[in-house]
Amino acid sequence: MSPNGKWIAAPEPRPAGKVPHEPTVLLFDAAGSLIRKLPAPIYAWSWLPDSTGLFAALDTPQRAATLGIAELDGRVTATGLQFADPMLSRDGRWILAGHQEGCCAGIEQKEVWIAPRTGGATKVLARTGTAETQPIALLGVDASERLVYRDATEMWRIPIAGGAPQRLAASPEFPRTVRGSTSPDGLAILVRGYEPQRWYVVEGDAVTLFDATSGDIVEDGQGMRLAFGNAPIWTGPHEVLVRGSFGLVRHDLLTGRREALAGTLRPGDLALARGADRLLVARGTRAVVIDLSTGREGDAGIDLGTEVTGTRAFALPSAGFILSTASATYRID
Questions:
Q1: Phi then psi dihedrals of residue 317, to 5 deg
Q2: What's the confidence (pLDDT) of residue 227?
Q3: CB neighbour list of residue 104: distance below 8 Å, 6 or more residues apart
C-alpha cells in the first residue's frame, strides 16, 4: 500500500508450470481495481514516501541492484543509483542511496550518492573517512533536508544541497546500527541498534539512547520480521507507541511527554498497522482491532493462517486497513 493509501502494488502471479517468467508488478487502486502492469522485470520494490512511484530493483547482480523509479503511469526513470537503502528528500526532488563496489564477500560501501528524482547526473554526497570496508549506512533525512548517516563509529549529518558534514556523535557501538525510521515531521530519527537491540534518537544536534525504562517501543511487525527488528509505530508527528507494565502510551521523542492510551497489547500480540486511534494486531491466528481511545477490541473475522509473520497490513486515510494474508487480501473498515 502506498503511504497515501491510494495505491496497492503486488507481484503478478507466476504462471503455472515451468514457463519462463520475469517478475512484474501490478498496480491497483485502494478498491482493488487493476490500473496497470508496471514494466518487467522488477525484482524488488518499495514505495517512495510521497507515493509518486516505486523504488525498483531492475536486476540481480552480486551487489546492490540497479535502482530505477517505476512511475505510476508505467514509465521507468533511470536514477544511476543502486538499491542500497534508497531514500527520497522531503521535498521530493532528490534520491539518495548507498553506493557499492565489488561483489559477493568483497562488497564495499564507502559512499553515499545522490541524483535528481526526475533523472539526471549523479554525484557523491558523502564519503567515509575510514579505511573500513562497509562503514557507511544511511539513517534518515531530517526536516531541514539533511542526511543523517553512520560512518563506522561516528554519526554525521550533511545538507542534501551540499556543504560540509557535521559530526553528531561517536560510539564504539555505532557500527552495530542500521536505519530505523524518521518521524512524520522529520524532527526525530530513530536508529536501530543491535547486539544488544536498542534505539537511538537523533534530534537536533544530539544523539541519545532511548530510555528502556520508559517501556518498549511498539514495532511494526508486518511482513517478514527482520533480524534487527522493525520500524516503530508512529502515533503523531514525532510520537511513538510505547508499552510497558503500565499499559500503552503515546511517547513524545522531543519533549518526553507521555499520554496514556486505552487498550492493551497481550504477550505475543504482533502490531500490524495503526490508523487514527485504531491499532490492528495479529493475536494468534486472528486479526484484532484495538481502539486506543476506548480500549474496545473487535475480532475482524479473518483467519491469518499459520504464516502470521507473512501477513502485511496498511492503514487507510479513512482509519480502516488493508490486510493481506498468504491466501487473500481484505479491507477492514
A1: -60, -25
A2: 45
A3: 62
Distance, in Å, from the CA atom of 174 to the CA atom of 7, rounded to the nearest integer, reads: 37
Q: Which three cell numbers stand for residue 316?
A: 487507510
Grid cell, residue 25, equals 508488478
CB 254 within 8 Å of CB 245: no
For the purposes of burial, counting CB atoms within 10 Å of the CB of 267, is it exposed (0-12), middle (13-18) or buried (19 or more)? Answer: exposed
Res 312: pLDDT: 84
Q: How far apart are CA 25 and CA 39, in angstroms?
A: 7
Closest to 233 (Cα-Cα) out of 297, 301, 181, 306: 181
Consecutive 10-residue averages of pLDDT for the chain (333 residues): 90 75 88 89 93 95 95 95 96 97 92 96 96 96 98 98 96 94 96 91 96 89 52 93 90 95 90 92 93 95 81 85 86 89
Say how far apart CA 290 and CA 304 lie, in whole Å. 17
Extract the C-alpha cell encoding 167. Answer: 559530526
C-alpha cell at 96: 539518495
Q: Where are the alpha helices (DSSP H) in 35-191?
A: none
Cell of 239: 510520537
* Neighbouring-strand partners of residue 244: 247
Q: End-to-end distance of the chain based on CA atoms, in angstroms?
A: 16
Output the pTM of the full model: 0.92
Cα separation of 85 and 183, whole Å? 17
Nearest to 195 by CA among 173, 214, 216, 211: 173
d(CA 111, CA 107): 12
Biggest CA-to-CA distance, the chain? 58
∠ CA 134-135-139 to the nearest 5 degrees? 110
